[in-house]
Design brief:
- This protein has 140 residues and is an alpha+beta fold.
- It is 39% helix and 20% strand.
- The protein contains 7 helices and 4 strands.
- It has helices at residues 12-16, 20-29, 44-50, 60-67, 82-90, 103-107, 122-132, and strands at 3-10, 33-40, 72-80, 116-118.
- It has a 4-stranded antiparallel sheet.
- The longest helix has 11 residues, at 122-132.
- The radius of gyration is 14 Å and the shape is globular.
- The chain binds adenosine-5'-diphosphate.
- Adenosine-5'-diphosphate binds next to helix 4.
Length: 140
Amino acid sequence: MATERTLSIIKPDATRRNLTGKINAKFEDAGLRIVAQKRIHLTEAQARTFYKVHADRPFYEELCTFMASEPVVVQVLEGDNAIAKNREVMGATNPADADAGTIRAEFAESVGENSVHGSDAPETARDEISYFFSGLELVG
Ligand code: ADP
C-alpha cells in the first residue's frame, strides 16, 4: 500500500462545539498520523479560493460564508492510502447518508455544516496541502 498525505479541515461547526480532539481521535484510531496541524480563521477570500472548484454550484456562497464564519483546524494526515482512508473515516457528505461510526454520522449538523473536509484525489491533496502548509511544517 502507498503511503499518502491528504489535507483535512475541521470545519467551523465542529471547532465551535469543541470537537477537535474527538475528531482527531477518529483519525488516529484509523491509523492516520497528524503530521501538521494549525488553527486559523479563514477570510472569505481565502475560503473562496480554496473552494473555487465549486464556484458554479448553488451552495458556493453559503459554503464560503460558513467556512469563514469561525476558526477551522487545517491538518495534514499521513498513512497507507490516506486519501481514501480519510474519506472513509469522514463518511458521506450528507450526514443522513453517512455510515455509523463515521465523523459525519456522529458529529455533522447538516449537508453543508458537516464537520470535516478531506481531499478527494492525489493531485487535489498536493494542491490543497501546499495552499496551507510549507514543506518545513510537515513533520512526519
Ligand atoms: P465532500 O466534502 O464530501 O467532498 P463536495 O466536494 O461535494 O463534498 O462538497 C464540498 C462541500 O460543500 C461539502 O463538504 C459541504 O460542506 C458543501 N455542500 C455540498 N453539497 C451541499 C449542498 N447540497 N448544500 C449545502 N452545502 C453543500
